[in-house]
Structure formats: structure tokens, C-alpha cells
């Protein structure tokens, strides 16, 4: 009997990937040993610190469809050893995102009976009692959630903070069955109900950012929407959740309680968090509008920056490499920077349209590398950090030359925005870059400001004398250009093994 059980567990592990937990040797500090993405970039959850927030007036209220399920429908309530999960039918979906995201399941993260805090996301360090995740997959692009889970645009999760307060009748619809799934891998069928009643009242107020699954394999595939307002459950309801379940199998003699199942906040990695609300946030910056971003993207996609090659400006474009070098290498190549300009230019001209894969950007690589690597490298993938190095490098190289600022403005800044938006999945804007440079030395910061002003003047003069500069006209043109539909779709993550995932 015991042997059969051990074999069963062994087979289970072999087919679903290595085991992991929230505590002990398989705890989150060690998830990346078996699940490399957990140690990579753009992980979730994060702490929503005020300085990361950018107000975006273009974020519409979240709209969900078919959330009011008929009681004739049955849902599967299960204990997967990491959480309690309720299956959801795929006719439920989010209709207010660029793609249709169909529901798959919802589950919870919570504290314990002696530590009442257990949300994953936090607000300026404040942790709530718990958090609900309603997981959806991009059903416009992928046939099912297994195919979507590792794609950069595969998942959309609605996060709901849970605070202790008033009794919540909607949560009771399935809380009352928890005793039927006390042990790991137990499942029961429960009648469906109105899932909308689990969401908070203000679906128009939320945090939005690009992140990951908060459990192994931690794929950075999630478009996060975390509602600002919590829902409440009573202390009694919370304690029922926190004490009813075990992370261990019914057959195991040593029982392991299932609680405190939250991951700690991850690095922001220079991401910003878009917010749909402005009130209560003093002096919050606004994000670049989608229109501005689109303009930048179009400008780059039509490839007219090639014209700038004649002026030698192509050298300023960040070069692409399979892995950005470590700091030592970077310094070395900075000194020894001596690549063939002809090769560079040729390479660049050949690839006027930015390629669509998730490579990193770096400077000072003297070997031309393929532009389209096709994989997302989790190494030193801090795109923004590489870009920052690039900007600083250019500042050094073209110090005190008007050309430097002009090209920063014309080439590097749009490039920064484009790359970080499309590949690094963050929303940088000029403000961010200014702030970054301000953090350096006074001289550089003031010079940048002065030079930006000068460049602005120059641009105005140029517009007046436009007929003398046909090249610039070409750059400004091409209103018909559009972003190819699958421009950003080739990015997939390495997926070495079939693995279980929940979130
Ligand atoms: C981390 O996990 C690996 C592989 O599962 C294991 O060999 C190692 O002992 C763990 N390390 C720690 C510090 O627990
Ligand atoms: C949900 O649907 C039921 C019928 O299936 C209906 O009685 C109820 O009023 C609906 N609830 C909401 C909030 O629309
Ligand atoms: C998901 O879709 C793929 C491709 O159509 C298919 O091979 C796979 O079996 C499906 N997986 C599940 C769990 O339905
Ligand atoms: Zn989760």
C-alpha cells in the first residue's frame, strides 16, 4: 500500500515537474533551481509603491461577461496542495482588454490564524488578509490555457484584495464545502453561482502591469489587473479558510497545514504600474498615451530612421545581442570599441524593421549578432538597465556635442520607449529617463535639459525650413503604416518540461 503510494507520488512528480512549497528547502528562495523563470525578470507579485504608479486616462473600467453562472452548472472545487481552486467555464470572459480573455479558474492566497495577512500584492508595503486571482487566457490567440500559459500575451489575471470585515455571502457559496477538500488533490463538484459577486464594487479602479505567475513555473505571461478596493470576509470566514485545509495528502501520516501561501513582493525591474485612478494620489505622473506610443512605434517600423544612417546616427541605436554582457565585459568593450562601421551599417540597414523577439539590448558588442533570436533570455535581461548603460555610453561619447542630444531625442528615446514597451514590457517615458539621468551627476542632468531645449528650438527652425530637409519629411510621413498584426507574437518562453502551475 505504502509502496504503491510512493510510486504514485513519484510518477506524479515526474509528469508534473519538481515539487515546490512556500516553506522549507523547496520554498520560494529555491524555486529558481527547478523553475528558472522564478529567478528571472518581471516577476509577480510586486509592492505598488506610489513612485511606480503612472496615471493612464485610457484604462477603461473592467468589463466581464457571463459571470453570473446558472446554478445548474457544476464547478470543480479542489485542493491542489498550494491553494483552493474553483474551475471556471470558458464562456466567462473579460471583454475590455485588447484580446478576449476567457476564464479558467480562480484561487486564493491567504495568511494564517496567527498571522492575518497573506495577500501577494501589497500597497506601499501594506499587506491585506488575502487575495483572490481570477485566471483568464487569451482565447483569441490560443486554443486552451496550456498553450497560453507560457506566451507573453497568454494570460490576464484579475486580482482582488481580501480584507477582514463584513461577512461575505458570495464567498460562503463555496467556503461551506472546504471540509470536503481538506487534503491535497481532493476535488468535489459544487453548484455554480454569480462569480461577479466575488469582485469588488469599483471595477473602474485598478492597478495594471505586466508580470508573472506567482507560483512555479513563474512564466512572465500575465497581464495583471489588481483592483484598488478590497472585498471583505468576516474573521470567522477567514479563519475557516486558514485552518480547514492541508497541503499534504490524506494518506500521509504527517499533516502539513495549508496557509501562508503567498509569495513575497518581487523587484519592480524598472517596470511602472499604470493606474486607472488619480484621486488620493498626490502629484502622480501620467503615462505616455497609447497615441504617443503608436506614433513612436510607427516611426520605427516604417524604417525611415535608415535615412539617419547617412549622418552616422545608426551607431546610436542600441545593438542587439543574445545576452547582454556582464559589467566587466561591458567596460572592456567600451574601451576597446572598434567595430567596423561598414559592417555595422550594413547590418543595421538589412534590419530596418525592428525584429520581434525578446532579445536584450546592449552596447559595445563588437561581434554582429543575429537580430532575431526567437527566445526570451532570462539571464541579465534587464532591458532597461542595458538601455540605461547605452544612454550613459552615448553621453560619454558625444559629450558636449549637440549631435548627442539630438540623436538621443530622435533615436534613443523612442527606441527606449519602443523596446521597453514591446519587449521589456514596461512603460518608460521621457520623465523616467530624465529622472534616471538626474540620479547621475549634476552636469549631465543640466546639460541634458539645456540640450533638450536647444534641440526643441532646432526642430522648430527645421520645421520652418522644411523644404531644405527632405529627409526629415520622409521620417515624419507614412501615416498609413500600421503595426504588423503578429509583430509581437513570436516571443515564446523556453518550456523544457511539462509542469504544473496554478496561478
Ligand atoms: C534547492 O533545491 C535543490 C534542488 O531541488 C536542492 O538540491 C538544494 O538542496 C536546495 N537548496 C536549499 C538551500 O534548500
Ligand atoms: C443572476 O442570474 C439569476 C438567474 O440565473 C438571476 O435570478 C439573478 O438576478 C442574476 N443576478 C444578477 C446580479 O444579475
Ligand atoms: C490544448 O491545445 C493543444 C493544441 O490544439 C492540444 O494539443 C492540447 O492537447 C490541448 N490541451 C488541453 C489540456 O486541452
Ligand atoms: Zn495566485
Q: Could you describe the 3D structure shown?
A:
This protein is of the alpha+beta class and 503 residues long. The protein has two domains: 19-275, Alpha carbonic anhydrase (Carbonic Anhydrase II, Roll); 289-324 and 333-491, no CATH class. It has helices at 2-16, 31-34, 145-148, 169-175, 235-244, 290-301, 327-336, 341-350, 383-397, 402-422, 430-438, 442-464, 470-476, and strands spanning 47-48, 53-55, 64-65, 74-79, 84-87, 93-94, 101-110, 122-123, 126-127, 130-138, 155-164, 187-191, 206-211, 222-227, 231-233, 273-275, 285-286, 319-321, 360-362. The strands form three sheets. Strands 2, 3, 4, 5, 6, 7, 10, 11, 12, 13, 14, 15, 16 and 17 form a 14-stranded mixed beta sheet that branches. A three-stranded mixed beta sheet has the order 1-8-9, with no helix packed on it. A two-stranded antiparallel sheet has the order 18-19. It is globular, with a radius of gyration of 25 Å. Mean pLDDT is 70; it is low at 1-15, 293-385, 421-433 and 467-499. The structure holds 2-acetamido-2-deoxy-beta-D-glucopyranose (3 copies) and zinc ion.
